Amino acid sequence: MSEASLYERIGGDAALRQLTDRFYDLVFAHELISRLFKSDKDEIKEKQRLFLTQFLGGPQLYSDIHGHPMMRARHMPHVITEDDAVAWLQCMSQAVGELPISKELKDELFDRFPRTAFFMVNR
């Protein structure tokens, strides 16, 4: 029997909906990075949920709908600094911290984000 994915272990779709809802409440209110999120909040949350599902080992939902994630290329039109990445990670850390999962799972989940956040830095 194969080990359950991180997606499954954190609670699947329900957990990701909770995470993305809280995360984007924080992001849209953040004085530094809210400028990066000008389009429809619900659309942004849905794309993030689809991406995270795939990123954490769940079904390939993002790719099925939007094609290969190409996350760096998709973010290139936006000026993203190291300070932006840190702010993004602070919001994600707070959102992950509010999930009703063990500290060990919270740590494992959050540890997936710093490398990706800093990979998006383009200025």
Keywords:
about 0% strand; mainly alpha; Globin-like; globular; about 120 residues
- Helicity range of the residues? 55-70%
Low-confidence parts lasting 5 or more residues at pLDDT below 50? Answer: none
CATH superfamily: Globins
Number of helices: 8
- DSSP E strands, number: 0
The shape is: globular
Average pLDDT confidence is 92
Q: Radius of gyration, rounded? A: 14 Å
Topology readout:
Layout: H1 6-10, H2 12-29, H3 41-55, H4 61-66, H5 71-75, H6 82-97, H7 103-110, H8 114-119
Helix pairs in contact: 2-3, 2-6, 6-7
GO molecular function, one term: heme binding
Organism: Dyadobacter psychrophilus
Keywords: Heme, Iron, Metal-binding, Transport
Describe what this molecule looks like in 3D.
It holds the Pfam family Bac_globin. InterPro entries: GlbO/GLB3-like (IPR044203), Globin-like_sf (IPR009050), Globin/Proto (IPR012292), Hemoglobin_trunc (IPR001486). Keywords: Heme, Iron, Metal-binding, Transport. Belongs to the truncated hemoglobin family. Group II subfamily. The structure is a single chain. By secondary structure, the chain is mainly alpha-helical. It has one domain (6-119): Globins (Globin-like), CATH 1.10.490.10. 64% of the residues lie in helices and 0% in strands. The chain contains 8 helices and no strands. The chain has helices spanning 6-10, 12-29, 41-55, 61-66, 71-75, 82-97, 103-110, 114-119.
